[in-house]
Amino acid sequence: MTSSHFVTIDFGSIDPEHGAPAADRVISGDPQFRTWNCDEAEGGLYAGIWEATPGKWRIVYDEWEFCHILSGRSIVTEEGGKEQRLEAGDSFVLRPGFRGTWEVIETTRKEYVIRL
After folding, report:
1. Which residues are in the (S)-ureidoglycine aminohydrolase cupin domain (predicted)?
2. Are 49 and 11 in contact (CB under 8 A)?
3. Which residues contact 115 (CB under 8 A, 6 or more apart)?
4. Does residue 1 sit within a domain?
5. Which ranges of 28-116 does DSSP label H, i.e. alpha helix?
6. Around Cβ 65, how many Cβ atoms within 10 Å?
7. What is the pTM of this model?
8. How far is Cα 79 from Cα 62, in angstroms, rounded to an integer?
9. Is residue 102 part of a domain?
10. Do 75 and 105 contact (CB within 8 A), yes or no?
11. Is 2 domain-assigned?
């Protein structure tokens, strides 16, 4: 029996959405995104897996996001703050109002939970 209240984060059966940062936010490289949105709930709650290829771009967060790095290496730097070097196993939260940059050094894949 399958429960509608249990959702496996399994991107193998989902076609990814393809994207990229807006051209005016790109600082270097040609970063490309793939997103497997595995679950969505009323009120703006999303969970899934995101992947980005090398490049650097400006980020601005209006939402709250929990991230867990599955593979790759990235550097996230908050405006006026120090850079945070991220690799497989690292977890963090970006809160609404976060402004800075995301630089993918080696193609990075993360699990995410977003709340708008």
Report:
1. 41-112
2. yes
3. 43, 44, 45, 63, 64, 65
4. no
5. none
6. 19
7. 0.92
8. 15
9. yes
10. yes
11. no
